[in-house]
Amino acid sequence: MLRHKLIMLLSLFAALALSACGQGNTPSVTKAVAKPAQTYNWKLVTTWPPNFPIFQEGVERFARDVKTMSNGRLNIKVYAGGELVPPLQAFDAVSQGTVEMSHGAAYYWAGKIPAGQFFTAVPFGLNAQGMNAWLYAGGGLELWRELYKPYNLVPFPMGNTGVQMGGWFNKKIDSIADLKGLKMRIPGLGGKVFAKAGGTPVLMAGGEIYTALDRGTIDATEWVGPFHDERLGLYRAAKYYYYPGWQEPGPVLELNVNAKAWASLSPDLQKAIENAAAASNGWMLAQFEAKNLEALAKLKNEHHVQVYPFPDDVIAELRKLSREVLEEEAAKDVDFKRIYEAYKTFAANNDSWNELSEAAYAKARKQ
Ligand code: CA
């Protein structure tokens, strides 16, 4: 009996000593035993092929960051497109709660939500810096969240390619008439503009592009930029590489979180997701900025690709057609119209500021 009391007393001293030192979460003997922190095991499906550089890498990086920041309480297992659900069902899988998260681009769901395209890219619209400004500081993210609310989704910007390239052609483009009759893989609003210019836009996933171009099923394609285009081997199927990518001047990639799953998290875990997504957003853009030029040099020097700017009058015509497409789409869809108005105002202000900041500086550096 005495021995039992002695052991109790020693345990009490040990517990007090530990809690006095502030070591770990040892429950104080004077308080109720704290519940162990809940651990979450989530699934994230992407729309990208396995090991797809920068995009899939950026998502893996996000999952590792969240695990570290949550001290292992939020574990996110990443699945590439098709591993768990087909790539273009990622949106529905998160919306319905089959998985907690997805990564892709809002314009993939244009058939369901046309207005979502503003949160990826608009032809002749904002570049990456402008999109970050609109989304993080100009009210864009609030509009995006409102648009996705009926689908039980909380979206976050997570990745950007920067200005893309205009695409690969099997002939020179000297005038807008040269686009007439061409079949080109070009998605989204850019595709609608291309159709107005007399071309036929074709939709196909990245994995099918090379074969289609090589066999002549399509005459032209846009994909991303030198880094990804070189890896896809597009230079073997077409020799003329045009810039700039007027159709996708700074496309944003999206992280979607199921709204119910999001609401179940404590504020610290929500913050870990928000900050890790912002970190990956910057990381992906930096990767493109650092790697594209090196890939372009390889395309020119090793693969003898001919790189040209679109002629000024072709750009002017495509810009005019882009405005027409945006106005027409706005007349068809009330959400599109509402978000277009907000986007247009922000973009006009951003252009004015850009003229005497980034654009003026870029010009000054060359003089
Ligand atoms: Ca593209």
Structure notes:
By secondary structure, this protein is of the alpha/beta class. The chain has a domain at 40-162 and 250-290: Bacterial extracellular solute-binding protein, family 7 (D-Maltodextrin-Binding Protein, domain 2, 3-Layer(aba) Sandwich), CATH 3.40.190.170. The chain has helices at 2-21, 55-69, 90-95, 128-137, 140-148, 188-196, 206-215, 226-232, 259-263, 267-301, 312-332, 334-355, 358-366, and strands spanning 40-46, 74-79, 101-104, 153-160, 167-169, 183-185, 200-202, 220-221, 240-243, 252-258, 306-309. The strands form 2 sheets. Strands 7-6-8-5-9-11 form a 6-stranded mixed sheet. It has a 5-stranded mixed sheet with strand order 2-1-3-10-4. Helix 6 links the parallel strand 6 and strand 7. The longest helix is centred in the last third of the chain and has 35 residues, at 267-301. It is globular and about 80 Å long. The termini are far apart. Mean pLDDT is 92; it is low at 6-29. Bound molecules: calcium ion. Calcium ion binds next to loops.
